[in-house]
Amino acid sequence: MSAEVISTPELLEQILVHLPIRDLLVAAPLVSKTWHAVTLSPALQRALFFEPDPLASASTRVKNPLLAETFPPFFEDDPHWSGNLEAIESMPWSKAPDAFKRQEASWRRMLVTQPPAQTMVIEQEVSGMAGISERRAVLKDLSLRMGVLYDTIVPFIEDDVVCFRIQWHNGIALEGPGDLKLEVGAGYGCMDDLSRTLGGRFHSDGEKVIEVPFGKWETRMWD
Amino acid sequence: MVLLVTSDNEQFQTEKDIVERSVLIKNMLEDVGESDQPIPLPNVSSSVLKKVTQPSTGPTEIDVRGRYLSTASTTVESPSRPPILEQSQDETRKRTTDISEWDQKFITVDQEMLFEIILAANYLDIKSLLCRRWLQDGSQHDQGARPPEEIRKLFNIVNDFTPEEEAQIKKENEWAEDR
């Protein structure tokens, strides 16, 4: 009877599905080929946020807990504009840049939520001495994975002035269409130090250029 | 009381609320209704059933603890239950320590028994907490997972990866390692 359970993939799967996501991702696949194969089962791929969960309900969308812990500025559902250069630089990424940067790093493939977010509204706002300009875009059919979210946001963070926030649609908080709304803002003054930029350390080698179909800039001049 | 009969034909009188922690037995009881007929458990031996159902030694206890703790239900008065159940909800820290000590003791059962218990827990459908606690490190850091090497040792698993394969998998998920 002995190794029966552990060497029976169906039973092993039943056990592993209860592991916290970090352990399921980091420890389980390294035990043996059998264990690795079991982590590729549909149930465990869903638990790992690699595959969409058809049973997950959109009204109780669950954020990927491991990503939320690892990429805090992308998940903080607060009204403040807390996403900025500094917030990105203080992510766990800074402690192991090589592990995060490499192309095959699995965070890029991970779904940001279950069920996956499909529609993202992006609003960009730039204000300066003369007035304020805004433009808007909607990205659809995303099945949003972290790689796409990261590649969408990071190019905006050109300097120390830009900041962003993400609001998640949970049925109440976000009005209008979209599972999430990304707002990017920058208010430039004449005293800004624009020399500080996000270093190459935070560049993902797997980066793909995301075409954001922005509408026209609409500018209002200050009175 | 419910009468259970194990694979080696031993009979166990067990309290209904204890055996009902097993989803399998609960469903059986619902199907059969009130009855004095013994419930046969052809896949579970008496020594394993003792481990699984005896309060304070079996994995059901951990399940019970989990359930009582999570639902903040009323305390159950029973001398056979571990003192953990009599603790108030706010003694979180103590509780964690207790569970860890309990695990440590429990994990000292021999290999064969460990496997049989896992198998029985699966069969009886009371596996969730039990199995999870085995994979995690119950002895030292309550939070962390067992590293792959330790899991292999615990379950007698041979590492059949080539170093290259192992390195490749590690590379993909290294970002998520605890640090």
UniProtKB/TrEMBL annotation, chain A:
Residues 9-50 form the F-box domain. It comes from the Eukaryota. Signal peptide: none annotated. Gene3D superfamilies: 1.20.1280.50. It holds the Pfam family F-box-like. This is Putative MFS transporter.
From TrEMBL, chain B:
GO terms for biological process: protein ubiquitination; ubiquitin-dependent protein catabolic process. Component of the SCF (SKP1-CUL1-F-box protein) E3 ubiquitin ligase complexes. Pathway: Protein modification; protein ubiquitination. Pfam families: Skp1, Skp1_POZ. This is E3 ubiquitin ligase complex SCF subunit. It comes from Mycena sanguinolenta. Keywords: Ubl conjugation pathway. Essential component of the SCF (SKP1-CUL1-F-box protein) E3 ubiquitin ligase complexes, which mediate the ubiquitination and subsequent proteasomal degradation of target proteins. Residues 1-52 form the SKP1 component POZ domain.
